[in-house]
Design brief:
Layout lengths: L6 H12 L7 E7 L7 E5 L2 E7 L7 H15 L6 H11 L2 H14 L14 H13 L7 E4 L9 E4 L4 E4 L10 H16 L3 E3 L2 E3 L3 H7 L5 H10 L1
Parallel strand pairs: 1-3, 4-6
Antiparallel strand pairs: 2-3, 5-6, 7-8
Length: about 230
């Protein structure tokens, strides 16, 4: 591989490798101030437009080559070879890259959520009760809020870039048992206590320590059964 290739040349070469019988389109690459590591690709006639997060501006050619394989494969609904995905993830999982991504999410992103005091449950009150019960009251309270749209798929998430826990507003209803709400909030509090473990291309969200701590929740099986019924 030629390391002095421009990003446009890298994408053109990869396109030729993946689509050898198709004329190589004119490649236009734009580095954008996204609030995350997402990149996008589109094909309009003979123009291949690629928008890449500016955190990758100046990235080594092998990383751009991996991204090219991922994006062009996605364009044609193919699954890229695992070696490209692994190389790309390893680069993003580097400590300096994680730090850079954390900063741009905090600086550019906006966390949209509703007030923690909902129509049925007050997340701040429940947080403080769980904090005393399981963390000796030592956990600093992050930003708390209900999602602006109810979701049955994502019942809660912790956003480390904004130090915020958001619970799905589908749980802020009289039909949602308090135990179920407590469990979802407790689960997200554990993400503050046990950060994601990065190892090469792997990203372990629920570490053994995380799972052991989760098993200490009183009524765990009952709460999970409630969530399934919801």
């Amino acid at each position: 591989m030629l390391f002095f290739e421009t990003p446009e040349q890298v994408f053109a070469r990869v396109f030729r490798e993946l689509k050898p019988r198709t004329a190589v389109p004119r490649v236009e690459i734009e580095f954008c101030r996204f609030a995350n590591a997402n990149s996008f690709i589109s094909l309009d006639g003979d123009r291949l437009h690629v928008r890449i997060t500016d955190v990758l501006q100046g990235a080594p050619a092998p990383v751009l080559e991996s991204l090219a394989h991922i994006l062009i494969s996605r364009l044609y609904r193919r699954t890229p070879a695992r070696c490209w995905s692994d190389r790309y993830r390893r680069y993003l999982n580097r400590r300096d890259m994680r730090r850079a991504l954390h900063l741009i999410r905090a600086e550019r992103g906006r966390k949209l959520m509703a007030h923690p005091r909902g129509g049925t449950y007050d997340l701040e009150q429940i947080f403080e009760e769980l904090n005393l019960r399981y963390f000796h009251g030592l956990m600093a309270r992050p930003e708390l809020g209900w999602s602006r749209r109810p979701s049955r798929v994502t019942l809660g998430h912790y956003d480390p870039s904004h130090n915020a826990i958001v619970l799905s507003s589908i749980l802020d209803r009289p039909t949602a048992p308090r135990l179920a709400v407590e469990y979802v909030l407790f689960h997200e509090m554990l993400h503050l206590r046990f950060p994601v473990d990065h190892r090469g291309a792997r990203r372990c969200v629920h570490t053994p320590d995380f799972k052991a701590a989760e098993n200490e929740f009183h009524g765990l099986a009952e709460a999970k059964a409630m969530l399934k019924r919801l």
